[in-house]
């Protein structure tokens, strides 16, 4: 049975656990964002060994997600209040999104190794703008989480549409190139998958931002996002 003298200790311990959870998510997010930058770097360097290092680093992100899950479970077993529940649920969701960002960055590195088997493609530079914006959205979403900045989180959510537009533009450019030169079909297909990975990273950054809003305001239902990715309905170019 909890006594009044136990209460301050329990609350202090709970605060410490929440701070530890917060720090772990920030560390995990920083690792995932760095993975995006490293993956794009190896595309241009055409370095298989560097790509392998990016792929291997994904394990560290996976391990950190497992640690966060264990910490969340420990907090949940203490019978948290409603506000604490939002902290716990948001942390669990955000950790999952960061883990997916790491997976997509590793996929970029894997695809880069396939591109290294063919002559350099000028269209790899088309990934740069996508990667810069995707990386920025992830970092901004993590900063919003760190400071509980709802306004910044809402900006991340709004800017996801910009990433969709860049993805659609590159998608159409690659389709045109493939139609003009069938020899480019294989490498361009890799680039299409890589571009889609970056677009999905943006979606996960937006998920993180939405969970910041949920944690602060308790709102789990937000207006529909401004989605501008119409690649699923593109049957040709024009």
Structural commentary:
The longest helix is centred in the first third of the chain and has 40 residues, at 6-45. Helix 2 packs antiparallel against helix 3 (82-115), helix 3 packs antiparallel against helix 6 (185-217) and helix 4 runs parallel beside helix 6 (185-217). The chain has 238 residues and is mostly helical. 79% of the residues lie in helices and 0% in strands.
What characteristics describe this protein?
single chain, 238 residues, mainly alpha, 6 helices, 79% helix
Topology:
Elements: H1 6-45, H2 48-76, H3 82-115, H4 126-147, H5 150-180, H6 185-217
Helix pairs in contact: 1-2, 1-3, 1-4, 2-3, 3-6, 4-5, 4-6, 5-6
The rounded distance between the terminal residues' Cα atoms is: 72 Å
Mean pLDDT: 85
Biggest sheet record: none
Low-confidence region ranges = none
Category by helix and strand content: mainly alpha
Radius of gyration: 20 Å
Q: Which percent bin holds the helix content?
A: over 70%
- The total of helices stands at 6
Summarize the entry for a quick read.
The chain has 238 residues and is an all-alpha fold. The chain has six helices and no strands. The N and C termini lie far apart (72 Å).
């Amino acid at each position: 049975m909890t006594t009044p003298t136990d209460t301050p200790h329990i609350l202090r311990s709970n605060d410490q656990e929440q701070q530890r959870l917060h720090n772990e998510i920030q560390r995990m997010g920083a690792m995932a964002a760095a993975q995006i930058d490293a993956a794009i770097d190896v595309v241009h360097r055409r370095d298989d060994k560097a790509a392998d290092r990016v792929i291997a680093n994904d394990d560290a992100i996976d391990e950190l997600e497992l640690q966060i899950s264990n910490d969340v479970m420990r907090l949940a077993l203490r019978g948290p209040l409603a506000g604490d529940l939002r902290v716990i649920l948001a942390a669990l969701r955000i950790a999952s999104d960061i883990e997916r960002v790491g997976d997509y960055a590793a996929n970029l590195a894997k695809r880069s190794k396939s591109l290294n088997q063919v002559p350099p493609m000028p269209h790899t530079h088309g990934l740069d703008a996508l990667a810069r914006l995707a990386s920025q959205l992830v970092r901004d979403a993590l900063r919003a989480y760190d400071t509980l900045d709802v306004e910044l989180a809402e900006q991340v959510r709004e800017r996801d549409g910009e990433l969709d537009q860049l993805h659609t533009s590159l998608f159409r450019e690659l389709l045109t190139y493939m139609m003009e030169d069938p020899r480019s079909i294989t490498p361009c297909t890799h680039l299409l998958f890589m571009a889609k990975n970056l677009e999905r990273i943006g979606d996960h950054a937006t998920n993180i931002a939405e969970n910041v809003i949920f944690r602060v305001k308790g709102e789990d239902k937000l207006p529909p996002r401004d989605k501008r990715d119409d690649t699923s309905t593109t049957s040709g170019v024009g």
